[in-house]
Amino acid sequence: MLNLKTGKKLIHVEQPDAFSATSVSALVLRPTATVAWIFEEKPISGSEGTRKREIHTARTGEIRTLDSGLDIDVRSLRLQSRTLYWTKAGVAKTATLD
User: Does residue 24 or residue 49 have the better pLDDT?
Assistant: First the structure.
């Protein structure tokens, strides 16, 4: 994550290994600059499916993992006020963001 006013890098995520590609399949942002996203790790080759799926949140550089599992619905991430919503294995989950 980059502060567009100052150009300062706030959050940096490393590539996990030389054989994986990472992506963000959903992203939400609060006016306070708290961000949450669904992180996915997939192999570079198309022979395997997704290896990892996680819900992350961060504000000033510290990344927290709220949930993990391939059964997280990538289309379910929503933010209403301070409450983050997602679905895992058909079960609704929530977390309160700063």
Answer: 24
